[in-house]
Amino acid sequence: MQKMNISTDFIAYFNCGSVKLKSEAEILGSIITAIIKDKKTVTNKSIIAYLLAELESTNDVIFQDCLRNTLQIVVGKTPDDDGFFS
Fold it and tell me: Which Pfam families does this one have (predicted)?
C-alpha cells in the first residue's frame, strides 16, 4: 500500500480558491494519481521527480510554466525530506 501523509496546510494552500492555483492544483492531483497508479510511494522526491519528467517531456510553453509553478510550490512547501509528503 502506498504511504501518503498530506499536510492540511499544504492542501489548504492549493484549495485557497485562487484562480491562479487551479492549474497547479490539477497538475499536483494528476501527479499524485500517476504515482499511486505506478504503485510508488507519494513523497516529496517522487512528486518532484514526476514534475521534472513532465517538464522534460513537453514542448508546450504554457504547460511548462504551470509545471514550473507547481514545482516551485512543492519545493517551497517541503523544505526537508520529511516535509508534507513522507
Answer: YmgB
